[in-house]
Amino acid sequence: MARMKFICDSERCIECNGCVTACKAEHDVPWGVNRRRVVTLNDGVPGEKSISVACMHCSDAPCMAVCPVDCFYRTDEGVVLHDKDVCIGCGYCSYACPFGAPQFPTNGTFGLRGKMDKCTFCAGGPEANGSEAEFEKYGRNRLAEGKLPACAEMCSTKALLGGDGDVVADIFRNRVLVRGKGSEVWGWGTAYGRPATGGAPPAKPEGKKS
Amino acid sequence: MIMRTVAWVLCGAAITLAACGEKTSGAAKKSDVPAYQGSVGASAYVADGWKAGDQAAWELQLRNRMQGQNEYARIPTKP
């Protein structure tokens, strides 16, 4: 299997926040922490576009590069995860991430910053797959249950695609060819590399214009 | 005088190098178990169609599930 990736099709996203709700419910994410959120560009203006944003599990993840305690690791499927027992909550990853993915729950009486929390691609953490300890720290491990991330599977318009990069790129490419527009994928180049540097573009603007 | 200077130098060196013997207190990063090994708990939630530990079956299961996001594979195309 190739690397796991997310694609958000801004032509389809209707800003329903179903992905956000699915993520919150699936992992019992605490108040104040949003592993996934929907961002609307040009809100209220005709032609506005919405995109669902979370950790993109970048090919060359900047969070991994800047972490002073080296708490990040990458699974065989390319999912970027971290060990909360090692994280010191310094926040460097938050400054490095181009997607604003790292979240920090307030912890304690004086609102101290807790350990970092982020999207796990529903792959849990280093604890035993599906264990209570894993759920408490990272949420459900759907990959170990033979499932895909809850946000993508719950998406009502299938704007958010998650899975093997080659497969989701093929699905998206087919859509673009059929509708003849909307080939831009926000964040793809930033997360997985520009076409010139090896990252394959998910779609080519070809086909009939609608 | 020389003895006193040597004593001060030795004291300074001892203080300076005191931290070198300190062991790191940070926890070591744990290794993760691959997802295809399956889930230890909540077996009621595990999807059917694959067996834990079989990487090929797990990959096939996920690939089939990925096609669930492709409505062109689920609905007939226009005539």
A few lines on this structure:
Chain A has 210 residues and is of the alpha+beta class. Chain A has helices spanning 18-27, 62-66, 92-96, 132-138, 150-154, 165-179, 188-192; strands at 4-8, 37-41, 49-53, 72-74, 80-82, 106-107, 112-113, 160-164. Chain A starts with a strand and ends in an 18-residue tail after the last helix.
Model description:
The complex is a heterodimer of chains A (210) and B (79). Chain A is 25% helix and 14% strand. In chain A, strand 4 and strand 5 form a beta hairpin. Chain A has a single domain (4-197), classed as Alpha-Beta Plaits. Chain A has helices at residues 18-27, 62-66, 92-96, 132-138, 150-154, 165-179, 188-192, and strands at 4-8, 37-41, 49-53, 72-74, 80-82, 106-107, 112-113, 160-164. Chain A has 210 residues and is α+β, with helices and mostly antiparallel strands. The longest helix of chain A has 15 residues, at 165-179. Chain B is an all-alpha fold. Chain B has a domain at 48-79. Chain B has three helices and no strands. Chain B has helices at residues 2-16, 55-66, 71-74. The longest helix of chain B has 15 residues, at 2-16. Chain B is rod-shaped and about 105 Å long. The model of chain B has no long low-confidence stretch (mean pLDDT 82). The chains are: A alpha+beta (210), B mainly alpha (79). At the A-B interface, strand 8 and helix 6 of A face helix 2 of B.
